[in-house]
Structures are given as structure tokens and as C-alpha cells.
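Running low. Got one?
___
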Amino acid sequence: MNRTDRLLAIVLELQARGRRRAEDLAATFETSKRTIYRDIEALCEAGVPVVAVPGQGYSLVAGYFLPPLTFSTDEATVLLLGSEFVGRHVDAQYRAAAESAGRKITAVLPAPLREEVAYLQRHMRFVPASTGGSGDVEEVYLRQVRQAMLAHQTLRFRYQTRYRTTDAPAPAWRDADPYGLVHMGGAWYMTGFCHVRHAIRHFRLDRVDEMEVLDRSFIRPPGFTFEQRRDEQRPIVVRALFDPEVVRWVQETRSFFTAAEEPTPDGLLVTLRVRQESEVLQWLLGWGAHVRVLEPESLRAQIAETARAMLRNHAPAESLLT
């Protein structure tokens, strides 16, 4: 943070908190107390009425304020909760920016509105879904992907593929042009053009083992959106009918591959689009006898065979000895 930004941030901090000691300001802005002393002196020379009380810290003269932003309670709450959410799910650079933005918004709110928003902040929480990846490592990759997106540079990485084909050993090296980032189900996904598959693919960042930004540029397709590529990426259509008693829970825990849902007299008809049938096999099996796959026939056969294998695995012990 440069000095000009820090001086403004100190004023906002004093306005929001009322009184702050030099050591508190130094910790907030990650600098020394000596630097804070010089900053306070500069503010006083610029005409900002800062009051210093020995042993208690600095505050602004009563009545001095910056023009308040005209946010409603709902608008301010959304902005502050949003900055908290972003701060928890991005890398350190954007986390610091989110925290700084939150302080600035809080500082310029009128006191009554600030109290209402603070109350809601204390009593509303976003709980992230747990993932199996390493948060610190994923954060490094997230920063690399974002930098590569802005610079339009190709990425090279080793990727662990959960659903493999016979011609795709894992982990395999991939070169991909990053087009976008999606946060879903507690994990970050990079969408981009895969040079191995010659098609748009989604890559889950916590499945990446190594990553580097190549000195090779790419041109992002004009007008690219995530939605328009869905059908091209997932040519196989799966339709499954869920019993009425589990409809609520199916809608609560939708598959990543869900494309459409249609209520029917017999239950919920769910349409999914996949690249290969194994991508939804486990999700469908998890609903047991409460789901019936209507198409494709090959997936119906695969589920039936898996069910027979499960039956063999769970046969009574005495039958295994005979």
C-alpha cells in the first residue's frame, strides 16, 4: 500500500473505530509505529483534525466526517458479507483487497446503519464446503491462473483425473489456455482450452500437482461464456427419474452435471449432460432404489452390473465359504 492510500485508510479507520493506538494502526496496515507517527503528522499538516490522547491513541474531532455513501442496510450488508466471502475463498492478494474494501465501506456508513450492519455480520456466516485438497497449494495455483488469464498465457500442469479413459494415464501433463474461474461446491475450477483434448475442459485446482505459466500467449474466443459451451463439452444426455419422497433432497444436493429438472406426477425428472457416463455413476448410485435411470441404456446396464457386484460384496459370510 502506498503512502497516499494509507493516509486515506487511516482516516477511514479512525472514523470507523473512534480511537486507535499507534500500535493498532501499525498492525492493521503492516507497518511500523514510527511510520504511523509520520502519517499522523502528515494528516495534521493537511488539515485533518486528529486528536492525540497520551496512552489512549488517536481519534478525529467530533463532527469531522467524509461524505457518507448512500447504502441501505441490505446493500451495505451484501457488500460486507460479499467481501468476507471473497476474502475466505481467494488468494492472499485479493484477500487483502477484500479486507481493505470492507474497512472502507464500514468507515463511511452513518453510525446507526453501521451498528445494524455489524449486528447482521456477527449473526450471519458462510460455511465453506470441505475439500480434499491443500488450501495453501490451491491458493498458489489460483493466483497463477488469475495472472495467466490477465496476461493471456498458456498454463502447463500435472492433473489427477478421477474418471480416466484408457488413453489417459494419470497424473498427466496438460497444456491449457485459461478462459475463466468458477467457484463451486467449495472448490475452484478453471475453464479453458485443453491442448491435449483440443476442446474446452474444466480443471479442478485441488487436483493439480504442479503448475507453471508458459511463455506462450493465446487469444480468448470473442464472446466466450460458460453456458454456451455446456452442450459442446458434454455430449451425453442422461435422464433419471427420482421418487417423490427424495425430490427435496435431490434438489438440495444437485449434481455438478445437472442441466435441467422437470416435476412429473411420478417424481422429479432430472437431465444431466456428461462427457462420459462414469461421471454421474456414483452420484446416481447414492440414491439407491429411489432413482431409475431412463437413458442411456448403456448407463442402465452399468448401474445394474454395479448393483450385482455390490450384492456379491455384501453376501452373508457363510455363503462366501460354500
Summary: The chain has twelve helices and twelve strands. The domain at 234-313 is CATH 3.30.70 (Alpha-Beta Plaits). The mean pLDDT is 83.
